[in-house]
Amino acid sequence: MSIAENLQHIKASVPEQVTLVAVSKTKSVSKIMEAYNAGQRIFGENKIQEMVDKEAEMPKDIQWHMIGHVQRNKVKYMAEFVSLIHSIDNFKLLKEIDKQAKKHDRTINCLLQIKIADEDSKFGMTFQEAQDILRSEAFAALNNVAIAGVMGMATFTEDTAQIEQEFKRLKTIFDDLNKLELEGSKLEIISMGMSGDYHTAIDCGSTMIRVGSSIFGERNYG
Ligand SMILES: *Cc1c(COP(=O)(O)O)cnc(C)c1O
User: Fold this and answer.
1) Sequence ranges of the domains in the chain
2) Terminal CA-to-CA distance of the chain, rounded, Å?
3) What is the pTM of this model?
4) CATH architecture of 3-216
5) Which residue, by CA, sits nearest to atom 13 of ligand 1?
């Protein structure tokens, strides 16, 4: 199937209120343009330099999401245009994003990445760490970042019961963080679900799915 057909197929199987992030990492501009021409406007990349290069070449009404691990010293390259950063896993990173966003007189929306997987390789914080950040004075002093929700990645496994359990945990963490009655902000986004597990994720409360290979085919440099 073509990229346009894949997109159409996914959109038809997903509730309207769920946002689809087309994960375009390693894909060429011409492949991404196929998705763009089929109406897709939100793309996710996991490397800052790659996203910056693509942003420069592509239409300006694209919303670029950073979904990969972020190194603090590279935040400055995307601060002018990035629309949502999914992968905040520590406060120092948030502070740097605030600083760089201020230079461009904008607010950058971010998600707190929560570690739900049973794998050491996955980044993210605990509920406690997320709560401590949201309640801290240091966080309250940041005026150019907004926490819009949470993100999580399930364990890479065939065990759907385990995946479901992990997604449910993220939904519970989201609900519990919202009970903190954060000043002036409400978490709205639960970013969870990829090509292999987005149906499960949606059943567990996902509001934003990040889908790559089901749109563009297997990961490669094509
Ligand atoms: C690559 C990636 C995805 C998309 O994965 P697919 O299995 O290709 O859909 C989603 N989220 C993150 C964080 C990724 O790195």
Assistant:
1) 3-216
2) 16
3) 0.96
4) Alpha-Beta Barrel (3.20)
5) 67
- Residue 78: predicted pLDDT: 98
| Distances from the Cα of 121 to the Cα of 115, 124, 131, 156, angstroms | 10, 10, 23, 11
Q: Measuring from atom 12 of ligand 1, which residue has the nearest CA?
A: 67
Across 172-191, average pLDDT? 88
* 182-to-124, 126, 127, 179, 198 alpha-carbon distances in Å: 21, 18, 15, 8, 29
Q: Which residues line ligand 1 (CB under 6 A)?
A: 23, 25, 46, 67-68, 153, 194-196, 210-214
138 alpha carbon to ligand 1 midpoint, in Å? 32
Q: How confident is the model at residue 1 (pLDDT cuts 50, 70, 90)?
A: confident
Q: Whose CA is nearest to atom 10 of ligand 1?
A: 210
> Does residue 145 register a pLDDT over 50?
yes
Distance 194 CA to ligand 1 centre (A): 6
Give tens-digit pLDDT for 55-106.
999 999 999 999 999 999 999 999 999 999 999 999 999 999 999 999 999 9
